[in-house]
Write a structure and sequence with these properties.
flat, 0% strand
Amino acid sequence: MPVRRADVIDAAMGLLDESGLDQLTTRRIADRLGVRAGAIYWHVKDKDELLAELADRIVAACLDAVPVPGAEAPAGSSAESRAEAALGPAVRLTAAAHAVRAAMLAHPDGAALVAGHAVPGPHSLVLADRLCGLAHEAGLPLPLAAVAGDALLSYVTGFVLQEQRRESSGPRPAPDLSPDRLPHLAAALAEGLPDEDTAFAAGVDLLVTAVAARAR
């Protein structure tokens, strides 16, 4: 059976999930598909195009959980669907941020893939449009809403990028936070730093609160 472009992307995603980005090579993809390495390039121009496809597929996985600006629950929909449609834009922006994080965390180096491509794919553009629309619904003018959406996406990507790098590198020695040299960081550590889920949620809340305040 001939190998299709979708088969190449599927094989690459499988290898990514098994071994991470550093071990993802066209030769390994070809071996998994039972073809010569050169056959891969009938379907993707180069490895960068392949990685861009993977990044866009990761983003695509979150879109069902990202609210659509202006969407209303259709007649006859469930009470849960109507409640979701009635949520305010700040709550919907928060839900979008958590959905994007979950999609990135579902794959090793997911955030690195998404962050590594300056030219966004079609699903990434849909995500950017929705974030812009949600910020606009919160009361920001469209140009500023686009900035707000990009800021939120940048925060999510950067946060997950650090999460996944810590996971892949393993435990590291704690830095020397001398109270004399770094009084605020030392005091924060002494009080107890939040876990990653709590820290992420707090950061999203700060950004969304700023959007709501700026829109007044």
